[in-house]
Write a structure and sequence with these properties.
With 289 residues, the protein is α/β, with parallel strands linked by helices. The chain has a domain of 193 residues: NAD(P)-binding Rossmann-like Domain (Rossmann fold, 3-Layer(aba) Sandwich), CATH 3.40.50.720. Helices cover 40% and strands 18% of the residues. Bound molecules: NADP nicotinamide-adenine-dinucleotide phosphate. NADP nicotinamide-adenine-dinucleotide phosphate binds next to helix 1 and strand 4.
């Protein structure tokens, strides 16, 4: 039996991990969120670790409001930098493995080929900078950790682009969606399964390692919106626009495709194609709504 603490368990990723957890009878989970285990409360985290001594911590908790982070810098730093640093110290103190999730927004978006884990980071937003600083704080405070960078996360749970497009398609006759930001979506259920699958192999790793994981395929937000309409059977016109026509407080990388060779070769992971996973999520949304 492996004892696993999941923080931020009511978010998109945490909820998908919870949903899959019964498929892993050799794992014993403790699912927590801000109301039961606030990761920024150092004293609370310390006493949790003293009392329960998890072997693995999957940190799904984060400050994820990309635009609001431009204003709420101190709060975003508390959750995305200082809290992960403390989680790393606590894991280190009992030799537990920390699995942490980061983002494609650590990159500038100026590349022309998929980013590798070793490529230079240069975030263009406060959120991206806090996530990068959080990664570095973990590496500085931990002997063994797995940091998984993902992008364009969506799920049956929580707020995300897929659910927003479906709602807007009902409310409006036409959607205008950015066509000059290129990346790869990630179905949180796929990422959740990978995280759970790689735990036994990850526990043997004695270093700080970074991996990239998204669904396979490369597309723009516009392409993604068109596919959402097609797969859901909604007859809503989608018009491509440029980033300059949809100004947001935080800048986004214009190209954030990530190279996934390392996670595939290290763990033998097979990654689903984005459209296949999108179809599964939309089916689930329509079936259960
Ligand atoms: N969403 C994306 O498109 C995306 C893209 C790339 C990477 N990521 C990364 O992927 C990870 C998972 O993202 P997600 O989309 O699942 O996030 P999410 O849906 O926003 O969930 C985050 C969870 O963390 C909780 N939380 C916030 N502050 C906390 C605290 N102090 N203590 C404990 N829990 C706290 C939130 O609770 P409340 O709701 O109560 O605040 C929420 O349940 C994050 O690290 C994120 O940075 C996300």
């Amino acid at each position: 039996m492996i004892d696993i603490l999941v923080t931020g368990a009511y978010g998109q990723l945490g909820s998908e991990i919870k949903e899959l957890s019964s498929n892993y009878p050799h794992y014993r989970f403790d699912f927590t969120d801000a109301d039961t285990l606030d990761i920024s409360d150092e004293q609370n985290i310390k006493s949790y670790f003293e009392n329960f001594k998890p072997q693995v911590l999957i940190n799904c908790a984060a400050y994820t409001a990309v635009d609001k982070a431009e204003e709420e810098i101190t709060f975003a730093e508390l959750i995305n930098v200082h809290a992960p640093a403390n989680l790393a110290r606590q894991c280190n103190s009992i030799d537990a493995l920390l699995i942490h999730v980061s983002t494609d927004y650590v990159f500038s978006g100026k590349a022309f080929q998929p980013y590798k884990e070793s490529d230079i980071t240069d975030p263009v937003s406060v959120y991206g900078k806090t996530k990068l600083d959080g990664e570095n704080a973990i590496r500085a405070n931990s002997k063994k950790s797995i940091i998984i960078r993902t992008s364009w996360l969506y799920s049956y749970y929580g707020k995300n682009f897929v659910k927003t497009m479906l709602k807007l398609a009902h409310d409006r006759g036409e959607l205008r969606v950015i066509a000059d930001q290129i990346g790869s979506p990630t179905y949180a259920a796929d990422l959740a399964k990978v995280i759970l699958d790689i735990i036994p192999q990850s526990m043997k790793i004695q270093t700080n390692e970074t991996f990239h994981y998204t669904n396979e395929g490369v597309l723009s937000w516009y392409d993604f919106a068109v596919a959402i309409m097609e797969l859901s059977g909604l007859k809503c016109k989608v018009t491509p626009i440029e980033t300059k026509d949809y100004p947001t407080p935080a800048a986004r990388p214009s190209y954030s495709v990530m190279n996934k060779s390392k996670i595939k070769s290290t763990f033998g992971v097979e990654i689903p194609y984005w459209r296949h996973s999108l179809k599964l999520c939309i089916t689930r949304l329509f079936r259960l709504s």
